[in-house]
Amino acid sequence: MLKVTCAIIENNGKVLCTQRSSKMDLPNKWEFPGGKMKDETAEECLKREIKEELGVEVKILEQLPSNEHSYSNSKKIKLIPFRCILKTFEITLLEHAQAIWLPLEKIECLDWAKADIPIVKHYIENYK
Ligand SMILES: Nc1nc2c([nH]c(=O)n2[C@H]2C[C@H](O)[C@@H](COP(=O)(O)OP(=O)(O)OP(=O)(O)O)O2)c(=O)[nH]1
């Protein structure tokens, strides 16, 4: 199973939501920024991916419950979310189609990647 970390980045009561580009797999789906774990800890992976994708540094607040999802027999992922805040603030979109800051009550309206849906629900229920 592929381990994938992702960042729920909070700022002023809003959360950063990013849309995958039409050229990535799961094209145009919304996700939390992050990516596949290499030979590193989940925390190292998250910080590396956020720097690569958004050009910013994050501080991790806490790890939230992971979600396992099978997109197909050959593609199973374990998505590991972390609540974060920004340490540097100038976001540059290096891979995503777009990024938006949304208040909690609006994030459920987006067309999320399937693996994210239980994570979004858990987050809304516990942090509203
Ligand atoms: N980053 C991220 N990936 C997610 C989320 N939800 C979800 O199903 N995925 C899937 C999409 C991809 O199949 C996989 C992560 O791949 P990725 O393309 O973001 O990872 P990466 O940056 O390491 O990719 P690569 O281009 O180096 O292969 O997990 C999410 O919230 N964030």
From TrEMBL:
Q: Which InterPro entries does the record cross-reference, listed alphabetically? A: MutT-like, NUDIX_hydrolase-like_dom_sf, NUDIX_hydrolase_CS, NUDIX_hydrolase_dom
The top EC class is hydrolase
Keywords, A to Z? DNA damage, DNA repair, DNA replication, Hydrolase, Magnesium, Metal-binding, Mutator protein
Instruction: Give the enzyme's EC designation.
Output: 3.6.1.55
The UniProt record lists the Nudix hydrolase domain at 1-128
Q: Which cofactor does it need?
A: Mg(2+)
Q: Carries keyword DNA damage?
A: yes
Any one Gene Ontology MF annotation carried by this entry is:
8-oxo-GDP phosphatase activity
**Per the UniProt entry, what are the Gene Ontology biological process annotations, in alphabetical order?**
DNA repair; DNA replication
* Catalysed reaction, written as an equation: 8-oxo-dGTP + H2O = 8-oxo-dGMP + diphosphate + H(+); 8-oxo-GTP + H2O = 8-oxo-GMP + diphosphate + H(+)
Q: Which Pfam families match?
A: NUDIX (PF00293)
The family assignment reads: Belongs to the Nudix hydrolase family.
Task: Please report the name of this protein according to its UniProt entry.
Answer: 8-oxo-dGTP diphosphatase
> What is the organism field in this record?
Salegentibacter echinorum
